[in-house]
Amino acid sequence: MPRFSIIVPSHGVAGRLSLALDSVLAQSYGDFELIPVCDAPGSPAADVATGHAGRDSRVAPVDSPPSAGLSGARNTGLRAATGVYVLFLDGDDTLAPGALAALDARLTETGDVDVLYFEHERTPWWEGESTNPAAPLLAKTPAGALSPAQAPQLTGVQLPAWSAAYRRAFLTEHQLTFPEGRFTDLGWGGLVTVAAERMAVLRSVVVRHLLRRQGSRLNLPGEHHHQLLDQVELVLTAAQGLPPERSHALFEQLFAVVLKTASRPERLPSGHRAFFRRAGRLYRSHRPADFPAPGGSLGVQHRLLASGAYTAFKALRGVNRSVVGAAMGVPPSRAKSRAWGRVPRPRMLRTRLLYARALRRRIDPNLAVYCAYWGRGYACSPAAIHARARELAPHIRSVFLVEPDAVDAVPKGVEHAVIGSRKYWEVLARAKYLVNNANFAEGVVKRPGSVHVQTQHGTPLKKMGVDQSTYPVVAAATGSFAKLLGRVDRWDYNISSNRHSTQMWERAFPGSYEALEYGYPRNDVYYTATADEVARVRQELGVPEGKTAVLYAPTHRDYQTGFDTGLDLEAFCAAAGDDVVVLLRAHYFYDQGRAKSSGRIIDVTGHRSSEDVCLAADALVTDYSSIMFDYANLDRPIVVYADDWEVYRETRGVYFDLMEAPPGPVARTPEELAEVFRDGSYAGAESSALRAEFRSRFCEFDDGLAAERVVRRVFLGEPPETVPPVVPLAERVPAPAATLVRS
């Protein structure tokens, strides 16, 4: 049997799970088994775990449904464990280098102990100094193996479950499992403390714990705080009969946690009095004989809790907060209007007053506001959702936000508001639903009851969000990451077209939003367009009859100024064959609204819809643009022109190696690019095989029904299980190409 079993629950942390697993597999000490606990086969975390299992036989994933919670996941891992000692690791934490070797060495010194506590680092998710909160506690303990009576202050109540190694035979003998519900670490730690007979400590860091940007879910307001008392009662019941020197310390630590929650009534929107009264009953019924109440303010709280004096406790809390507030210079008066304090700072005072006034009016439950590409026009997923909402939710008034120079391009019948206008601020203040593929203006207030939907505008190959921070060229152009995250905090839903995106958005944009794995609504047209519609678009764009239209769509380079095609397109056409024409679509950063067509080059950069352009194209040539992920839905040939991949990867950063998993042939020079078209290999069997693998990974949820799913779930409030399921990839029929037969 292995020396260690390392159990890693992974629900909700798929984006960082690979870091946790890699930190274990990279340990110099190799006698272990690694047990990732995933939601279900095929889930994002399961895909990560399965990939690691394929590379290392020590990885043995197991499944536990999300409904079982953290305790269920850990218990599932425990049942699968075969090691002498068991460790737990959260899915977004890591083992410090050399951690397992240090644990093995310490256990060799102490002999078999029931539990070995160790230090851990708490690392801020963004910036700041790491802390080691366990170090002062462990420093007070004897050097060797010890009995609980020798260090009564050392209990699992003050330490998380992942801050110790547990002898599996000890857990089995005492039938120790994680109790159900919230605050399961407290219940587990208390039960282990009661049962343990031999302990030891390791005064070095084993786990590096990531402090999530969202903070602990346990600290959020809600009825779940009543479950804290369930865990306390469970431990107190198990602790009956402990000698005083042990029971006193355990009792005091448990009620320190209880009083911390009782002192924060904002965590219990309702039932705070009931929480206090039940805590008082537990205090009186389980207080050890001769228990000495602590001194100072904490001792007063103990006595008030013991006597059930809720009113006096509440008054004491108010006095304490006033004293702390005065010491911090906070004035006693409350702001008259919270909305006013959050009002943006437009340049015009009249606009500011208008928005503030609109914020005081009630939210319009039947008003939706849309915006795409910072107001560049009626486009992308917001436009697709808008069109579907007009059919499925006609009671909702929909307003599209556009810049003044984009007004003429808004389709007839679509209500719009010019950005910065009076109407713009009014609808932003009062809308129930706000849909965007980028972000709304910096000062837009997220009102309680409003629903923000972030549609994104591409699958991430290049680094995004806070992941850009380590790339100086990109970070300098991004601006304030703190402001970026403030905008992320407004999101209620974030749309994803594949599990790769779900994981990368979780990393790049940490927030409390819900991921909707519904597909990108803008890609619906790739499965709903007809041959007549494809022909119409080609005619509008000026594609000659019978010609092979190759869409050339290079991405933006952060290290370049201005747009450079990076390729002599006339020379490419001449070398590729007489039947080839090129549709040139530069990145939207370089859309000047003026076509630059010449000869066999048709400039479609200014065309409103990238989806139309893709429908018209018989093949795609791109470098690292996210358009490749969308175009792959059409199952038409894709060629990657990667003349500067190494430079791009180093300056921008990427989430995976495109050269290892391309959607088709890769050309490094203009000559290679022309050759794959001249000899037909761009549409050959090898190209089709690469594209099929690429589609299975990145066209996961795009099936023509994404917009409907969003409308039904968000606008109509239908439960997740009733929205249309994703059609399997093998059953989807993409829009027909004009001149090529799809393989």
Strand order in the sheet with the most strands: 3-2-1-4-7-6-8-5
Q: Could you say which overall geometry the principal axes of the C-alpha atoms support?
A: globular
Count of alpha and pi helical runs: 28
Unreliable runs: 321-345
Helix content: 25-40%
Can you give the mean pLDDT? 89
Sheet with most strands: 8 strands, mixed
What is the rounded Rg?
30 Å
Instruction: Give the termini separation.
Output: 51 Å
SS-based class: alpha/beta
Portion in beta strands = 5-15%
Query: Tally of extended strands?
Result: 21
Provide a quick synopsis of the model:
It contains 28 helices and 21 strands. With 743 residues, it is an alpha/beta fold.
Your description of this structure?
The structure is a single chain. With 743 residues, the protein is α/β, with parallel strands linked by helices. The protein contains 28 helices and 21 strands. β16, α22 and β17 form a beta-alpha-beta unit. The relative contact order is 0.07.
Give the SSE layout.
Layout: E1 4-9, H1 14-25, E2 32-38, H2 44-55, E3 62-63, H3 69-80, E4 85-88, E5 94-95, H4 99-110, E6 115-124, H5 135-139, E7 164-167, H6 168-173, H7 184-195, E8 199-211, H8 226-238, H9 244-262, H10 272-286, H11 296-307, H12 310-327, H13 338-342, H14 349-359, E9 364-371, H15 380-392, E10 397-402, E11 416-418, H16 422-430, E12 431-436, E13 451-454, H17 472-478, H18 481-488, E14 493-495, H19 499-508, E15 514-516, H20 525-528, H21 531-541, E16 548-553, H22 569-576, E17 580-584, E18 601-603, H23 610-616, E19 619-622, H24 627-631, E20 638-641, H25 645-652, E21 666-667, H26 670-678, H27 685-698, H28 706-715
Parallel strand pairs: 1-2, 1-4, 2-3, 6-8, 9-10, 9-12, 10-11, 12-13, 13-14, 14-15, 16-17, 16-19, 17-18, 19-20, 20-21
Antiparallel strand pairs: 4-7, 5-8, 6-7
